[in-house]
Design a protein that fits this description.
Elements: H1 4-27, E1 32-37, E2 50-53, E3 70-73, E4 79-82
Antiparallel strand pairs: 1-2, 1-3, 3-4
């Protein structure tokens, strides 16, 4: 009986560690979003669609990585939502 309790505690610790890693990994999944160039300060959108990431986990999304900044659409369809580069 003395050997079973430490073994059970070790098993619970290992299961907890793997459960924590799995949960943290799910929080880092990218949220792809259609993105467009912003044509004016009011948020009029260009017609060419790109894919960026909605989560703020990288630099702002730009055409080709260094070109014009891209924007996601808000609830009114205006390009006013800042989007970010997809993680590689």
């Amino acid at each position: 009986m003395k050997q079973i309790i430490p073994l059970a505690a070790f098993g619970a610790a290992v299961a907890g560690a793997f459960g924590t890693v799995t949960t943290e990994g799910k929080g880092m999944l990218p949220t792809p979003v259609a993105s467009f160039t912003k044509l004016n300060p009011a948020g009029a959108c260009g017609s060419t669609e790109y894919t960026c990431d909605l989560d703020n986990i990288g630099p702002v999304c730009r055409i080709g990585g260094t070109g014009a900044q891209l924007w996601g659409k808000d609830a009114n369809g205006n390009c006013l939502v800042e989007v970010h580069m997809e993680p590689r």
